[in-house]
Each structure stands twice: as structure tokens, then as C-alpha cells.
Amino acid sequence: MIKQLSLFDIYPNGSPEEIIISDGHLQLYHSIFSDVEASRYYDRLEKEICWQQDSIILFGKSQPLPRLTAWYGDPERSYTYSGIAMEPTPWIPLLQTIKTKAETLAKATFNSVLLNFYRTGTDGVSWHADDEPELKKNYPIASVSFGGTRRFLLKHKTDPTIEKVELILTSGSILLMLGTTQEYWLHQVPKTKKFVEPRINLTFRFIQ
Ligand SMILES: O=C(O)CCC(=O)C(=O)O
Ligand SMILES: [Mn+2]
């Protein structure tokens, strides 16, 4: 009889999937939270986070971002994102618990988190790198996902001969973006016409 391999057989003892890319380093921890835990976190984040609808100026016109966002962190760690200056909301216990998990895996401490709420497939985030000057260079970024599964794509900034990387981020996973990943690669969560469940993503960061 052929045994169907589960992700636990492939990545036992909580070890991550190592994604080998040139000029960067990614580690994907599948099911770091159980399905039950992940769905509880999703429900609480949806209710407890102070979600905002931000806009950006595109071709002289104000356009709503295709997602809701929130920014939490240590006091005075303000952050400018797509031209939007965000003052951090103080930490809440729910976020501190998730932060501790991300810090253990990343072997690094974080002082802020950007949250994105993708309500439907028409919400997404376009090509960018988390390389703003206020972020500590080549410092880990931990990306935690709850709710619907979405595609996460990476492409090299300057070498078009390097193949794009596609990851599938499922509920309860943690993706670590390490080393020079932000310096050399862009990433996006593409919009999709397929039905997808709403998704909440948290990226834990370190502001200098
Ligand atoms: O939702 C994701 O997986 C990524 C979000 C992201 O790249 C960002 O907030 O900078
Ligand atoms: Mn990003």
C-alpha cells in the first residue's frame, strides 16, 4: 500500500522547508499552528485589530488600497509605507503571543508588525520589497498567515533569467524571509478571480 505523505512526514520535528534561491534565503514552516489554533487566531485578529482602509495617490488620484491594514509596535517606531506614514498602535496580548512564536523561529526580536486583511480575491499586494530605509538591513522578516490560502510570488529584482518562486501560504504557516532576500527580490500576493477565503497576514519587522 502506498502511504500518502503528510507535510509532517516531509518536514518532521518542526523543521522548515528550506527554499534555496540565489541572493536570498527563505524558510517556510508549515502548520506551525494547528488548524484549530489558526482559525481561533483568525477570528480574534478579525475582531480585535483596529483595521484601516488606507489610500495611495496613483496618477494624481486617491485610490483605496486593495486590502485593510494595521500597524502595531513599540512606541515611536513609525513607518512610511507606500507614502503612508503610520504611527504604531500599542501591542495587544494577542499580537505579543504570535510575536513570541515568530521570534523563536527567527532567532531574532521584532519591534513592530504590519497586518494585512485580504477580504476577497480582489484584495492583494503588488510587487514590492520590504526594504524601506527604517527597516534594519538584512534582518529577518517573519510572515504569519491565518485564514484562506494565497499564492506568494517572488522575483529577482535585476536578473530576469532567475526563475520566479511560487509559494503557497496556508493558514497557520510562518515564512521567514532572511539574509539578502529584501535587497535582491520583490514579492507579491496576486489578486485572483478564483474564490478564496479571507486571509490575515502579519509581517513582523525590526525598525531601527
Ligand atoms: O500577505 C502576505 O503574504 C505578504 C504581505 C507583504 O508582503 C507586506 O505586508 O509587505
Ligand atoms: Mn512585503
UniProtKB/TrEMBL annotation:
GO biological process terms on file: DNA alkylation repair
InterPro entries, A to Z: AlkB-like, AlkB-like_sf, ALKBH3, Oxoglu/Fe-dep_dioxygenase_dom
Keyword Flavoprotein: no
Record has Acyltransferase as a keyword: no
Gene3D superfamilies: Alpha-ketoglutarate-dependent dioxygenase AlkB-like
Keyword annotations of the record: Dioxygenase, DNA damage, DNA repair, Iron, Magnesium, Metal-binding, Oxidoreductase, Plasmid
Domain Fe2OG dioxygenase: from-to ranges: 109-208
Pfam family, one: 2OG-FeII_Oxy_2
PROSITE patterns, alphabetized: FE2OG_OXY
Single GO term (MF): metal ion binding
Cofactor: Fe(2+)
Name the record gives this protein: Slr7097 protein
